[in-house]
Design a protein that fits this description.
- By secondary structure, the chain is an all-alpha fold.
- The protein has a single domain (28-209), classed as Up-down Bundle (Growth Hormone, Chain: A), CATH 1.20.1250.
- Helices cover 70% and strands 0% of the residues.
């Protein structure tokens, strides 16, 4: 006597909610507001790469030393990021789980970002190494706090699988725009006209203030 086949539970449609209603998607203004946040996320890490050009080409710091200054912040970032990601998932505040990380990461990161440009070519290589390494680690920690919270918000803006793809495309638009603009930062920092316009400050200081 053959047994009747056991019916399998239906596979949930990824474009519907658990209640069977229409999936939630944030309003367009919130999505584009989130997308603009890519400017800060991109700037925190991209400007560090621009500073590397200054320390190597402008200051004459050894490429070996610079490579250590690039590696160490990423190593610290790889250790700290999972911890901050867990804290972000578990955090409960009146402002939500993600916003405190974004606020602190952006504000403190802006301080470290400005400090990158205030080093002096007159320092010896040890001082430059310590300065770039410490500031770089602080910057990457702030970047990790901001970037993980920002990306998590992007995935939470919709329950619809297809809408999530469109939302990420908005973030990609700002990524491409910032990538184009940042290719001119080094050139802008070397313009002598900035020094004359700023009353004696060199181009690096002007760029950092902007």
């Amino acid at each position: 006597m053959s047994q009747a086949p056991i019916a399998e539970p239906p596979i949930a449609d990824p474009t519907t909610t658990a209640m069977g209603g229409k999936p939630y998607t944030a309003p367009a203004r919130q999505i584009w507001g989130w997308g603009i946040g890519r400017v800060a996320e991109f700037g925190l890490v991209a400007m560090f790469g621009q500073a590397i050009n200054i320390f190597t080409v402008g200051f004459g710091l050894s490429p070996v030393i610079v490579s250590w200054c690039v590696m160490l912040p990423r190593l610290v970032d790889g250790i700290v990021d999972p911890v901050m990601g867990h804290w972000s998932d578990e955090l409960r505040t009146p402002w939500g789980r993600r916003r405190p990380f974004m606020l602190v990461g952006a504000l403190v990161g802006a301080v470290f970002l400005s400090l990158l440009w205030w080093a002096s070519p007159n320092w010896n290589q040890t001082a430059q190494f310590l300065y770039l390494g410490v500031v770089g680690m602080g910057l990457y920690i702030c970047y990790g706090a901001y970037a993980m919270a920002w990306n998590a918000i992007g995935y939470e803006l919709s329950d619809d699988y297809h809408e999530r793809s469109r939302i990420q495309a908005v973030g990609g638009f700002f990524t491409a725009s910032m990538g184009l603009l940042f290719t001119w930062v080094y050139w802008l920092a070397l313009r002598p006209q900035l020094a004359a316009w700023s009353g004696g400050c060199d181009g690096l200081e002007v760029v950092s203030r902007c």
